[in-house]
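Quick one, T. Sequence first:
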Amino acid sequence: MVDYKKLANKARKEILTLVHKAHTSHIASNFSCIDIATVLYSNLKKEDKVVWSKGWAAATIYYFLWRQRKITRKQLESFPNEPFFGLAETTVPGVEVNGGSVGHGLSVACGMALGKKRAGEKGIVYCIMSDGELNEGSVWEAAMFAAHHKLDNLVAIIDDNKWQAMGRTKDILKVNTNNVFKAFGWATVGIDGHSHLQMEQALDYASKKPFCVIADTIKGKGVSFMENHLLYHYKNVDEECYKKAMEELCQN
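Structure tokens:
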């Protein structure tokens, strides 16, 4: 049996250290999706693909690519030096879409899923997205495309952490994610995005439609003073913050 809690806690400590040493930001955005990524990458098959539309969680992306042995430890620790920038780019092995401009990952994932179907290839294409990027019209063009082409080998996972760059997502532009994806012809399920069991069960769901997992998450999850506000979307992890955060993580 996989000890997801132990794996996720190790990931948080490693990713915290990466972001601290790099003097970069987005630590809270990284922390909200670590439990999702821990379960997903622990259950990936060789023929599966992961598209990170949420490219600013670059430290998390690189960490799990290292776990897949797609990059070396030396490369991981070179973050944020070229090509391992703070916004993930396709110059890194295993990165399927550039992470600077939001809202494009699902379109790329649709193309990959359709290509697999036409080639008769096995495997699922997973697309990890943020709730904030659902404000982008390109997401809904891709959602329509996926339903029209019956892409039952496509799974979108929404890291619904309730925040985006300028504030609370509900205050910027509220989207009823479940109802809208259903209206566009997708199957959907809502889960606690920090429940490893619920995430594992969602990955076992079989559908004849494209499938959307709406993961209810907490921005900054795992470190109390980073949770559920906007500051650590932007603030780098200085020495004082690093020590306090690591103390909390070491107690888990």
